[in-house]
Amino acid sequence: MKKEEPQITINELARMVAKGFLDMQHHFDQRLSKIEKRLDKIEERLDKIEVRLNRVEMRLNIVEQRLDRLERELEEINLKLDRLDKRTNEDDQALFSDIDWLRKRVLRLERDVKVLKAKQL
């Protein structure tokens, strides 16, 4: 005797295929839900990172502005020091010239005093 294999009707096959698709759909829905949750968490973290980066960028801009101001101030200080150095050198030369003139004047006056003293004797 031959064992008879059970016959599957088209309706039963359709139900089995539909159930398989529903199972797959349910599986994909669960996976998609997990993926969406993970993406939401990632998006939240990226939003926080963006806020922090904006703060860092603002702070860097402030530091840049301060550095620019300091550079300008250093340039001004260097220019003033150069002018002061030049003026000091010019002042030194003028002072030496005045001192030299005063020495010569003192020598002349001393000679004149000697001449006057000599005439009084």
How does this structure look, described?
The protein is an all-alpha fold. The longest helix is centred in the middle third of the chain and has 111 residues. The protein starts with 9 loop residues before the first helix and ends with a helix.
How would you briefly describe this protein structure?
The protein has one helix at 10-120.
Give the overall pLDDT as a whole number.
Answer: 88
- Beta-strand percent range: under 5%
Task: Note the run of SSEs as H and E.
Answer: H
Cα Rg: 51 Å
Low-confidence stretches: none
Number of strands: 0
Q: Largest sheet, if any? A: none
Secondary structure class reads mainly alpha
Shape: rod-shaped
Helix fraction bin: over 70%
The helix tally amounts to: 1
Distance between the termini: 176 Å
List the helices and strands and how they pair.
Blueprint: H1 10-120
What descriptive keywords fit this protein?
121 residues, mainly alpha, 92% helix, 0% strand, rod-shaped
